[in-house]
Amino acid sequence: MFSYYFLLGLRSLRRNPVLTALMVLTLAIGVAASVSTLTILHVMSSNPIAHKSERLFVPEIDNGQLEGFNPQDQDRDDPQSTYMDAMNFLRDGHGERRTVLYGVSAPLEPERKDMPVMSVTGLALTRDFFAMMDVPFLYGHAWSDADERAGADVVVLSQALAEKLFGAVNPVGKRIRLMEAQFQVVGVRKPWLPVPKFYKLIGGGAFSQEDEIMMPFATAIRHEANPEGSISCQGRTDPGWQGFLKSECTWLQVFFETKTGAGRAELQDYLNNYADAQRKLGRLKRKQPNQLFDVMQWLEYRKVVGNDNRLAAWLAFGFLLLCLVNTIGLLLAKFSVRASEVGIRRALGASRREIFRQFLTETAVVGLAGGLLGLALAFGALALIRMQSEQLRIVANMDWQMLGATFVLSLGAAILAGLLPTWRACQVTPAIQLKSQ
Known about the structure:
14% strand; alpha+beta; single chain; six-stranded mixed beta barrel; 50% helix; transmembrane helix; elongated
């Protein structure tokens, strides 16, 4: 019976074509507006490494000065680590893996004479990063432990940069001139851009571009590669690179990985004991609680999804509700002219339940048509949004989940809008309609 009602619904689209077009268009615009906004919110709030996000932790210890300190302020402007703390975290060896990183940019001199000197951006990090973050390789692999200890001039390139420099060939073993030194290519990374970019929220941006280069942390330190990102300094800083490394400036991001989520308690104990030991050396005078954030807590702490984004989503759904109110009015008008048809069907023995099912199925067909049109409008809206900026280009992309949600939303909205008109259609009195004929 459903297939019969569905065919009736398709035929009903040709009745009152102007009224039907208005219903479909009204529903489609509401669906497109809400789905476009919801898609961006969905991407921004997604878990970028879901299978291990509860085992990756960012530590925070407060090394700020007492002057001007407000104990009620729990959020730090720059919750990164000093070079001293980061090196201690690496040396102490807690967790299954650990890494320290910071953003770098450097001039690259291509061997090809037809290519000018270019500026490339990326990360200086320790080799555990690749296993911790599940970085995929196209060619080669991460640098060795020996390269890391020696601070060797080695580099991992993105696939896009490798193809730009060498073409579609395996460049492992070749050299590039970077920071006025010859770096050997040890690996080429496949396209890899977690969204949000959780490992470089500070100074990099949650929705920034893919990193072009990755080099050993020790190599960047040896070359005195200045940080490309946020730096916050506390107290006196001695001049020169070594003075900067010994200072209380926070500019490094640290991540720990534990074998299981239960390892968090042990890692927290280590962080507390470490902070206590540093206080005995005259540091960490604020005595603030030491914190660990897993990936999703870190995204929340850094307010990757702001109140403005959530407000935009609510406003979009408010607009959808307004469209539904208009759709209800159009459906009432559409069904009211079919009162005589309902009366005849009732007189021939159709129950109110059958009438209800028929008209609700027709409403669902309208919702399906509105969903198809709304999907096309949503794709168009997202394409326009992607043209506005690089960050929006990354987040304004619809995945299969939102694709399914579009149809569910349109059908659900249409059925919800059709409940009142369908119920009104079922209240037709057969005798009155037959007398009026």
